Amino acid sequence: MSVIEEWLEDALDFYQPLGFFSHLKGEQRAVVRALNKSLVEISTEPITEDDLMTPEFDLFFLSLDPTRSLYSVMDFGDYLAEGNDAYVSSLEALAAISRGVFKPENITESWDTPDGPIRLHFDYAEKPREIKVETWGGAFDFKILLQLNHLLAGTEYRFEMAPLDEILFVTFLKAEEKSSLERDRDLAFMVLSLPRTFEPLVKLAPPLTFPEDPDEPVFYVGTLNEHMDRCVGRLRFILRGNTLEGHHQYLGESHKEDFTFSGTLNKETLKVSGKLVGHITVGMEMIAYEGVWKGHWCKGNRVATGSWEGWFVRDRDEGQPKPSDNSKIYRGQWAVLEEDFSRAQHHYIKRIRAWLETVWESRTTTDYPWMLTPED
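-> structure tokens emitted (376 positions)
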């Protein structure tokens, strides 16, 4: 058996229980030979042992399963034009790898102007839906996946993507499956959801028993994001007894955020809720901001995740709890790790911590770490 065939046999042992290559039938030795032949035929250069050691080769390998993955150039080029239904084809291709979960019907595409944006109309889960994408000079707008994942909130699955230079890899996974691919095969997916990235980490730490002394603090660190956008800044929580105090700070080039969180943790249900107050500074203008947040502590008390919504105080009518105009309300997710756990020496936790530290240092979209990159 060649080195490549040995690698393929090991890879199949890992990926087939996750449903990859389930369409390939027959004795495994024959399946391995067929996959080896396919890899050799589509590779532009000879495959080396060094290639087999890279996470990118896993994605190249998984591209051989068209029922579970998309692996294509991220640019439509001139084909992205009104009348060509490029995103209709993209939506159909995404549905085809969704394990039968995402079933859009009656898909149509319309353009607001010859330069976009593009609107996709379709029926899903017995309701009419619409999502909007930008033309980006012919490049694929990955935020289509964020919008589709929002529609999939009632399921265990999400579309996950890993850009590779000019190639885009997309597959459809449960949260633990995604975590396993990153943890056990060193793959690097974009961080599209904080709860789906953080909640599987509970398996990697011993449980934390809360202090009996209500004045003894437990420290947590993490970040937050805005709906369908990147994470910004550092989020810190201090838990004393049932009382939570927190602080979020982002020192970006375009704006700055400074929020104080307060809330209460119910240690029976492990649910938490509270308020946030602070300000956003744009240029020399400091604008008052407020909102609410909620979430839960995961089993073991080392990980907590949730959601938040906020608004500028000036957009809320006096006497009302929040703005009547829903477009004035901003929403997102938050996630934190217990401080000591965030510094654990497990290789995957070290990746999470390194990603968080880069988020904390990020000031623009240019220096933002969109992907959970492997350790050096």
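Residues 3-65 form one domain.
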